[in-house]
Amino acid sequence: MRIDIITCLPRLLDSFFAHSILQRAQQGGFVEVVTHDLRDYSTDKHRRVDDYAFGGGAGMVMQIEPIARCIRSLQADRSYDDIIYMTPDGERLTQKTANTLSLKQNLIILCGHYKGVDERVREQFVTKEISIGDYVLSGGELAAAVLSDAIIRLLPGVLNDETSALTDSFQDNLLAPPVYTRPAEFEGLKVPDILLSGHEAKIDEWRHEQALARTRARRPDLLE
Fold this sequence. Notes:
Layout: E1 2-7, H1 11-14, H2 20-27, E2 32-37, E3 50-52, E4 60-62, H3 64-75, E5 82-92, H4 95-101, E6 106-111, H5 119-124, E7 128-131, H6 141-152, E8 185-186, E9 189-190, H7 200-218
Parallel strand pairs: 1-2, 1-6, 5-6, 5-7
Antiparallel strand pairs: 3-4, 8-9
Protein name: tRNA (guanine-N(1)-)-methyltransferase
Organism: Fibrisoma montanum
GO molecular function: tRNA (guanine(37)-N1)-methyltransferase activity
């Protein structure tokens, strides 16, 4: 898989992709993540990529021209399954969305800034709009990083145990059950006996019951 991220602040993403699972995924050849500085595609001598909104009002708007140049430059080298715009008014990111996108080959993620992008970008180029929650960030970089992480960890071979992702919260419309590790007792707090029994079938049954109970208590909407 290849993920191209278009941003005004490429260095903001450097650290995120340079550590842990995301770094190993790239080093192992499971994914290629490339950031593109949108200012490189500006024809303005000051490398500006924004301007005042027509009709007035507070805030600046990202221009269509540099975005169009960047996207078309990328499309000249390969075809893309989706061009994703990170925006608060997009479709809410869910595990199902991440699962679907993890099956794609090439993705472009466009990071918004200021008051967002010229609407014509959304009409002409964007194929999917995604939000990571009902709140507004200073820019789309953190949202793009969140989306990328959710996708990349699902790629075969990225996690040491591929079954791990299959038991995460939301995979079966359930929250994950409680988990424990050593020591078996800490200050009088004990690990449930069933987890120490070695009886795999009963442990699986217990975990399912716990996941169901936790979901009913915290996210009953997932069971509807």
